[in-house]
Amino acid sequence: MKRPELAQYPLLIVDDDKDALFLMQEHLKDYSVTAFSSPQDALTSLGEKEFALILSDYQMPHMNGIEFLKKSIEIQPRAKRVLISAFAALVDTEEAWNQVRVDKVLAKPYTPSDLLETVQNALIEKTIEEENQRLRHLALVDSVTGVFNQRHFWDRLRAEMSRAKRFQRPLSVMIFDIDNFKEINDQKGHLEGDALLKKVADCFVQECRQMDLVARYGGDEFVIILPEIDSQTALPIANRYIEKIKSVSGASLSGGIASFPGSSSEREIVSHADKALLRVKKEGKGKVQLYSDLSL
Fold first, then answer.
1. C-alpha distances out from residue 225 to 68, 99, 182, 231, 232, Å
2. Distance (Å, rounded) from C-alpha 58 to C-alpha 65?
3. Active-site residue, 19 included
4. Residue 289: which residues within 8 A CB-CB, separation 6 or more?
5. Which of 88, 167, 203, 259 is the most buried (most CB within 10 A)?
């Protein structure tokens, strides 16, 4: 059965036989097709435009289909791949197409319905993969702020704590909350409150390193994992976050920091950071407290 919604996906076809190329374009006229008789020209196009599906003939001079598809992975790893090959060559190419992650094989001679079915099935798999990826993303991300949620924070913290212990490397965790956030919600409404949470989250993401992780811990609390950062280095970083968010959003933040070494597990490092935050909230807000300084 024809699936009209699949026509939105762009296809790339490579075949040195121009007559075969023309026929494929005719059979796939309901799709957005870009066709090349030269594998090298096709590789150039892959660097300029994203394709959902790549179809390549196997027998081509200078660069066969396996070699072409292997190079295409380096440029567009998420595209689906179809190898078109004569029956006689299928056995010889089986090991090779497994190495280059060919998703489908279209055997020659094929009928127009064979071609259409192969393309449709590959694109259906593409839509399923995209939907699964979207659902995985939703399971890890906070819907209000767009940063990671508490579930993913704990998964990542377990991994980072394990690595820190194994290699005896520093690791810090910061917990922040927005001062007087309940009053902001009560006075301006929850939509304004959500907008402030998003603005704060965006500031954290912009200021963090790529290796750091920002997550919404719950309510108006945010947590940040900083691999390779000890407590003394973390303190000025946290103060910079507070100053930046104050200038951008007008919000005042309080924060607590705990680190490894000093905290022996992921639960303990979060508990220690939370205790440091509670001390700040009791003593005036708008500052950052190191857990290691609480006993001084």
1. 41, 37, 26, 12, 15
2. 4
3. no
4. 255, 256, 257, 276, 277, 279, 280
5. 259
Which among 51, 13, 18, 62 is positioned nearest to 35, based on CA atoms?
Answer: 13
Q: Which of 30, 220, 230, 274 is catalytic?
A: 220
Residue with tokens 């402030």: 196
Q: Work out the angle between the directed axes of helices 112-140 and 150-167 (0-180°, nearest 10).
A: 80
Residue 193's CB is within 10 A of a number of other CB atoms, namely 20
Q: Give the whole-angstrom CA distance, residue 245 versus residue 194.
A: 15
- Token pair of 82, please? 């179809």
Give the residue-averaged pLDDT of 253-273.
94
Burial class (CB in 10 A: 0-12, 13-18, 19+), 281: middle
265 C-beta neighbours (distance < 10 Å), count: 13
HSE (CB half, 13 Å, CA atoms) of 33?
19
Tokens of 211: 């290796």
Kindly indicate the confidence band of residue 186, based on its pLDDT and cuts at 50, 70 and 90.
confident
Residue-level pLDDT at 36: 94
Segment 69-98 shows an average pLDDT of 77
Q: Can you tell me the distance from the alpha carbon of 252 to that of 286, in angstroms, rounded to the nearest whole number? A: 6
Q: What is the pLDDT of residues 275-292, one digit of tens each?
A: 999 999 998 888 999 998
Note the pLDDT of residue 92: 54
Residue-wise pLDDT tens digits, 206-240: 999 999 999 999 889 999 999 999 999 999 999 99
In this model, does residue 1 exceed pLDDT 60?
A: no
